[in-house]
């Protein structure tokens, strides 16, 4: 086997090795993404989808990730600021306790509603339920994926 | 040390400020850059190997095609960086690798397989393929950058369906007849295969229709005796659309496209509803349809008979697939090396249609089983990325669109690779991004471009779900 044939053979093998190295890097990228998804999955417990929002705050159609305690109201210090004339500064609070969500009205002027029913004290809410504050309607959903 | 760092950082900061003032907010895409660099390096090695074998000494030959291709990829990457898009960073390098393999193969095939002669310009197979690939990547980049909302897709689903059917009818009326089938349409010097574009349109229509009627299709049943069937009225537009597409495709004898459409239809239906009954029903329909077609159409019978026994007519009908099988055998594990495979008779390649339907066999001979497996793996990576984009999508339409677009590429690759290997009867469709041909490249570029646009985390939120879906079926609540 002369030097040229050997070089050619080495080039051939090098090409295949390159493709597989590329594939290895791809796999590593996929694995990293997968791991970061798994890690971030537990971080958010649920989310609120904005179904109706006449004033545009929060944005219509937005998906807002929730923490264990989420306060809602017109005041900017709330976790979710709801800009609507019928919403009080400190309107309601959504909390995750144990394995379920609870909604509590914080003495708002116009009340908080779950699926059209006014909230008295603390009520449990489930995924798919619709919350209404003033004219703003929000739907509680699981975090995807 | 701090002064050295300052002088090094100074120009960078100044450049950033300058760009910001011009309204450009670049966002680095390191992962994509690294992967593309490796693609360019691999292709250089491949080109070196090919040119050296052909010249009989160590040389890069005429690398202009390679240089243009790498410049093109760099351009697309820079465009993504400059526009600050937060799209998927893996899809472009994978597509680039497939396109590069295509160019390597086209550069070593007889250049007369395809030719475009314009006054003062004669383009052979490889330059032409480079031209199509360039167009495809520019289209891909444009879609990924420009598409910021999807209303133009979801709102006009019936318009899209009508466009698709219209395209096919156009071919049926105006297309020239080649080998008893009308596949392409020619307007002046430009010709194309509309069934490639139709597959994208079909996915858009199915995604929009299924997203709107998902709850209905998944929940209610029409009961006929002991069998619980899907709600028939809501299946009708979809089935009609599919039946028309299938009928035309069968009349045109483009069986590969028919198989592809049907597979994509079934998988999307399952993805939207998670009802195994649909899949079972679809498979039964498929088996029944296949039997009927086998009896009715001689060209279907020929295909199946060749698949069952290619040795019955080794120099006629079975010639192509037999040559392909020999090519796989000659390739072995490591392959013959680029440029070393495919002994030709004069200027005629060993396998007919090697640049379109049989690219996989050609590459498998020269890169061996390892190279062929790598190609299969690359399609696997596209599948993973696409389905991942679907899982993270903001709403049903986007999720279903991503699923459909991914499947259309991956299933097409599976059908033709299976055909080359004689696993399934051969149907003439292209291997995405590798086969020669503008229509196929453009259609698949649209697919990847839309997938990239869907993966962008900065796009507009989808429109709010119409308050309380039709007939009072809300979303499932697990309270």
Describe the structure.
The complex is a heterodimer of chains A (145) and B (479). Chain A is α+β, with helices and mostly antiparallel strands and 145 residues long. Chain A contains 1 helix and 11 strands, in the order H-E-E-E-E-E-E-E-E-E-E-E. The longest helix of chain A has 39 residues, at 3-41. Chain A has one helix spanning 3-41, and strands spanning 47-52, 63-65, 69-73, 80-81, 92-97, 100-105, 112-114, 117-118, 122-125, 130-133, 136-141. Chain B is mostly helical and 479 residues long. Chain B has a domain at 149-478. In chain B, the strands form 3 sheets. A two-stranded antiparallel ribbon of chain B has the order 1-2. The longest helix of chain B has 33 residues, at 359-391. Chains A and B meet through helix 1 and strand 1 of A and helix 2, helix 4 and helix 14 of B.
Query: What is the average of the pLDDT values of chain A?
Result: 85
Oligomer: heterodimer
Helix content of chain A: 25-40%
Radius of gyration of chain B: 24 Å
Strand order of the largest sheet of chain B: 1-2
End-to-end Cα distance of chain A: 57 Å
N-to-C SSE string of chain B, H for helix and E for strand: HHHHEEHHHEEHEEHHHHHHHH
For the largest sheet of chain A, list the strands in their spatial order. Answer: 2-1-11-10-7-8
Number of helices in the DSSP assignment of chain B: 16
Total DSSP E strands of chain B: 6
Largest sheet of chain B: 2 strands, antiparallel
Count of individual beta strands of chain A: 11
Rg of chain A, Å, rounded: 26 Å
Find the structural class of chain A using helix and strand composition.
alpha+beta
Instruction: List the chains of the largest interface with their residue counts.
Output: A-B, 42 and 51 residues
Short description:
The complex is a heterodimer of chains A (145) and B (479). Chain A is α+β, with helices and mostly antiparallel strands.
């Amino acid at each position: 086997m002369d030097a040229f044939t050997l070089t050619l053979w080495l080039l051939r093998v090098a090409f295949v090795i390159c493709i597989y190295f590329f594939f290895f890097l791809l796999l590593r990228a996929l694995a990293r993404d997968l791991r970061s998804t798994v890690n971030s999955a537990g971080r958010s417990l649920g989310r609120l989808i904005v179904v109706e929002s006449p004033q545009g705050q929060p944005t219509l159609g937005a998906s807002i990730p929730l923490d264990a305690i989420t306060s809602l109201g017109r005041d900017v210090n709330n976790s979710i600021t709801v800009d609507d004339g019928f919403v009080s500064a400190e309107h309601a609070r959504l909390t995750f306790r144990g394995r379920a969500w609870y909604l509590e009205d914080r003495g708002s002027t116009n009340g908080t509603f779950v699926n059209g029913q006014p909230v008295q004290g603390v009520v449990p809410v489930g995924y798919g339920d619709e919350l209404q504050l003033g004219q703003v309607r929000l739907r509680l959903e699981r975090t995807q994926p | 040390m701090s002064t050295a760092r300052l002088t090094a950082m100074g120009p960078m900061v100044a450049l950033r400020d300058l760009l910001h003032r011009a309204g450009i907010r670049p966002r680095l895409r390191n992962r994509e850059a690294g992967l593309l660099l490796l693609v360019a390096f691999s292709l250089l090695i491949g080109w070196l190997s090919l040119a050296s074998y052909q010249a009989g000494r160590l040389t890069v030959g005429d690398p202009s095609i390679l240089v243009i291709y790498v410049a093109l990829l760099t351009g697309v990457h820079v465009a993504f960086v400059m526009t600050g898009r937060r799209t998927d960073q893996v899809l472009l390098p994978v597509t680039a690798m497939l396109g590069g393999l295509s160019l390597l193969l086209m550069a070593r095939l007889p250049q007369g397989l395809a030719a475009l002669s314009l006054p003062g310009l004669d383009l052979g197979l490889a330059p032409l393929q480079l031209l199509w690939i360039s167009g495809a990547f520019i289209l891909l980049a444009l879609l990924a950058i420009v598409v910021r909302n999807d209303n133009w897709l979801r709102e006009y689903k019936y318009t899209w369906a009508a466009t698709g059917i219209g395209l096919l009818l156009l071919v049926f009326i105006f297309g020239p007849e080649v080998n008893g089938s009308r596949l392409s349409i020619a307007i002046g010097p430009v010709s194309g295969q509309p069934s490639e574009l139709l597959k994208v349109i079909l996915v858009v229509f199915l995604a929009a229709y299924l997203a709107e009627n998902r709850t209905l299709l998944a929940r209610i049943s029409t009961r006929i005796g002991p069998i619980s069937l899907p709600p028939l009225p809501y299946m009708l537009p979809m089935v009609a659309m599919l039946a028309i597409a299938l009928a035309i495709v069968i009349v045109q004898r483009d069986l590969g496209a028919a198989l592809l459409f049907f597979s994509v239809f079934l998988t999307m239906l399952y993805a939207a509803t998670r009802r195994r009954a649909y899949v079972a029903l679809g498979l039964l329909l498929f088996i029944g349809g296949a039997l009927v077609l086998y009896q009715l159409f001689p060209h279907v019978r020929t295909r199946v008979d060749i698949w069952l026994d290619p040795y019955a007519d080794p120099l006629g009908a079975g010639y192509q697939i037999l040559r392909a099988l020999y090519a796989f055998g000659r390739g072995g594990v490591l392959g013959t090396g680029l440029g070393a495979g495919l002994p030709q008779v004069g200027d005629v390649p060993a396998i007919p249609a090697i640049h379109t339907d049989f690219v996989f066999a050609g590459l498998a001979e020269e890169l061996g089983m390892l190279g062929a497996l790598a190609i299969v793996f690359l399609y696997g990576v596209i599948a993973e990325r696409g389905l991942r984009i679907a899982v993270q999508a903001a709403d049903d339409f986007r999720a279903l669109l991503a699923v459909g677009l991914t499947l259309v590429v991956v299933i097409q690759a599976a059908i033709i690779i299976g055909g080359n290997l004689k696993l399934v009867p051969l149907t003439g469709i292209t291997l995405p991004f590798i086969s020669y041909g503008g229509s196929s490249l453009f259609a698949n570029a649209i697919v990847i471009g839309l997938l990239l646009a869907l993966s962008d985390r900065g796009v507009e939120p989808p429109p709010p779900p119409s308050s309380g879906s039709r007939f009072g079926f809300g979303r499932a609540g697990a309270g």
